[in-house]
Predict the structure of Phosphoglycolate phosphatase.
Amino acid sequence: MNRFRPAAVLFDLDGTLVDSAPDLTTAVNRSLADIDRPALTEDQVCAWIGNGARRLVARALAGRRDITAEPPATDAALARFFVHYHDCLHEGSRLYPGVRDGLERLQAMGLPMGVVTNKPAAFTTPLMASLGIAGYFGVAVSGDTLDVKKPDPAPLIHAAGQLGVAIEDCLYVGDSDADRAAAEAAGSPLVRVPYGYPGDDAIFADHPAAMTLTVDQLAVGLAEPRKVL
């Protein structure tokens, strides 16, 4: 990413802007309780976030991250999960430290911003509104906006197009391997936040080219005159 200054910044949502693990854990455990399955810890659920709700539910049913096939009960469990998540969507979810300050600074610079998430739009929109961040973004591409979602690059490319910016001129900020793969395929430089969810830590260790910054650190750096990444 030598000598790169973005024309726009795109962000993942869960694990990047918002720590939604408490409410995702609640919804998963209520879904498991419906079928008399034992509850999971938040740490377990955190390790399984990053590839959309369906994969999260399938992993919860299987009890592990690496699955080659979905458990037979995935469809029914996913339907229950959506009902429960709707009921607890913003009970415990919160912005990561420095996110609001960073978004304020980027907005003041006039940088267009967007969100690209695998979360369904029915949850993306109210969650962003409840946390008071919807107004920072010119576009929000959810997991069901297109026929594909990350790690496919199409959602990033679509978001850039909605902002009127070429995807190669966008910076993408995320925390998961789906984010890394989508940005790489789209030709967009990637910044990884140093928090988020731990499931893909080993994969990022194999890709040291991804710069690690918090949202406010990124904003402060880009606010410096002639600053490039």
Summary: The chain is about 45% helix and 10% strand.
